[in-house]
Amino acid sequence: MQEQVLELQNVSKKYGSFTAVDNISLAIPKGSIYGFLGPNGAGKTTTIRMILDIIKPDSGTVTVLGSTSAAAVRHRIGYLPEEKGLYKKMKVWAIISYFASLKGLDRKAARARAFELLETYGLKDFADQKVESLSKGMGQKVQVLSAVAHKPELVILDEPFSGLDPVNQEVLEQLIQDLASNGQTVIFSTHIMQHAERLCDRLLLITKGQKIFDGTVEEACAILPRRVLIESANDISVLNQLQDVMSVQESVLPAGQDADRKLWEIFLHENANPQSILQKCFENGIVLTRFDYTQPSLHDVFVHLVSTDAKEHAFR
Amino acid sequence: MRVICLIAMREYAENVKTKGFWIGILLLPVILISLFFVSERLATSTPTRHYILIDQSGLYAEAVQTAIRREHQRRVLLEFVRYLQDNRRDVNFELAPADSSAQIDQLIGDVDADEVAALDQWLDSGGLSFALAMSGASLRENAPAFVEPREQFIAAQLPAAIDANSSPEEIIEQLRPYLNGERRLDVDGQRVPLFAVILIPEDINQDIVRPGTITPPSSTAGIQYWASNLTDTRLSNAIQNSVNSSIRNNEYAARGIATSTVRDVQRTRLPVSRLDPKKEVGEESVSVADTFRQWAPVGFVYLMFVTLMQSVQYLLSNTIEEKANRIIEVLLASVTPSELMMGKLLGIGLSGITTIATWILSFMLFIQFYQSSETEMIGQILNVLLGSDLIPYFIFYYLAGYALYAGIFLAIGSLCNTLKEAQSLMMPMMMILIVPLVTMTFIARDPNGTVARVMSWIPLFTPFTMMNRAAAQPPMVDVVGTTIVLLASVALVLWLSGKVFRQGVLRTGQPPRLLELLRMLRG
Questions:
Q1: Within 10 A of A238 (CB to CB), how many other CB atoms are there?
Q2: Complex ipTM, two decimals?
Q3: Contact B334 A99 (CB under 8 A)
Q4: CB-based burial of residue B93 (10 Å sphere; 0-12 exposed, 13-18 middle, 19+ buried)?
Q5: Which residues of A touch B326 (CB under 8 A)?
């Protein structure tokens, strides 16, 4: 069995009558990139804070790097909180060096490491500037660097992509991949599915404090039935007879298009072969003006799994 | 311990690196030193004043003129005494008795007892030139020459248009524009303001008040002194003294008493020696330094108050900055709340000590580089203080007081997200902090009284009050007892505020209500 960096067992946390995290269990293997997905207020940050032992769970156990308290192994953990902030009056290199030295690096090594990181991620010219003179995104990069400066075995990034422009998002993705290729484990939370899709080995989906999915990206996508979009002027009801087809739904064509034709959404059973639909259409003389077979995206899965809950939650 | 030092060093460096910190620190010595110079200048720079004297009775003009001449001589005399103090050899306040000193004080004592007589003495014996000749031997080498102050009050002529023999009301009516500053006098081609008019009516002697005289004098009775400047009373006082002296001399003569007899009687005196029973036999007399040692705690209390105020402000604003910027979360992922708290306490504490050290150092430097009788005295007082047992007291009570208040303010800071929120929670603390400042002088006068003793036992006041009493050898029960109570309270406060801090730092939203706070203290 693979070595577990982090293990949560039946962890719950309540704030008064509000349950922030409800009975979550998960295990994260060493060296993986793990995504925490979920709508706003789902309990991601609370879970992360409990992992870091900043707040105590009401029940359940957290095991981080073999210890029951992150406090004991905190020098081996790097953390970027959800709300970003730095000492405004400090110089960029000094702040990275300060956080690294708080994590156990000696002052000289911390300083050298700060300059090394700034150079690697293109911030060398800002090393001597004060934090208050940086843009928000730049400050965020500095904060990410200060979270990983001490080469932690476990890196926890809470919403690392928020507030970054696309170029810097890519730099950050690169950084996360660099960490993973060094054998460091990365946990990050986000609600932007593309990042999770591209980066994560495994992901956790939570909403209203409850785990609704834990597994690989492929497994997640398999939750949604596969779907074929076809556009045709003909009657396609025969397709319903196919064994592979779960259901057929008429979808709405974009306005201004030929009213004769219709858009159909065909959901397939697991392991179905979309080829059979094409074949059936051919046999029955159905003329297709469009045939789309796409894997459902993580986004679809996310929306499918949490949408109703999330909306309710957001406007409560 | 390593992280505590790291946090403390950062806090300290961040404070010490800011300009505001140094401006705040250096402002006090700069203000005090410039006040010192300004007051010295002001003492000698009062402008020349012109007056008009009209004596219709022809009886007292001479007395008034003498008064003004003497007022000038008095300034020369006082200035000379000061000069003598500045440049005398071996000034030693440790040995100098507190309330009488050689002939200078005899001189000043004479002035107090009977200014006119003392001045007569001064003038009779040759005035300034004689005094200079006499003092030559006791001046230190390289003493600068004495600069005689210039005359302050100069007589001016009545403007030609006004008749000196018309009625007092008329004269004043005509002079009113001059007195109000609407018109100016012509003196030697220069236009100068009229400072005062001294008008002696013809029937002045009817207004003399004797014991047994019942009729209350009317508002314009006696010598009329007209001046729109109501604060500079030197001239009117001098005239009053001189004229009264002249009238009394006439009275003495009328009753057959020799003026010289009176003067001798007036100069008879018996000294009062102030003795301290706590000192050793033979050295009981209370010196200047002793008096300062008694009052020094007040200074220490004030110093403690100012530095504590500064330190807690820093603690509060730094904690709130960390909370507002959410740096606190990163910090708490790296260090424990207790380490963070201790680091802060230490770092800001060092800033406070830096403040005190800078003040003491700047005064030392000032005394080193600028020498005069005042600074020499301050220097000697400082030496006395630094050598006394007050310093260990101060260090102990400062540290204890700092830990006590810093703990409380850190807890407050951890509960608030903005300084504005903190202000309402700070109010009661500020009120408490004001109390020792208000009672400061009172306790110095009655250091072992009931108020002082009761306040000593209230931990929040203990550092201030006990410092306040330190020079008065408070009873052992008080010293030991309050120290134990104080240390216990410091431990308790730090423990409790540690709890609040731990839970408070991650809080967002409104500061907690009282009930919630109690739960925090328990949890």
A1: 14
A2: 0.75
A3: yes
A4: buried
A5: 81-85
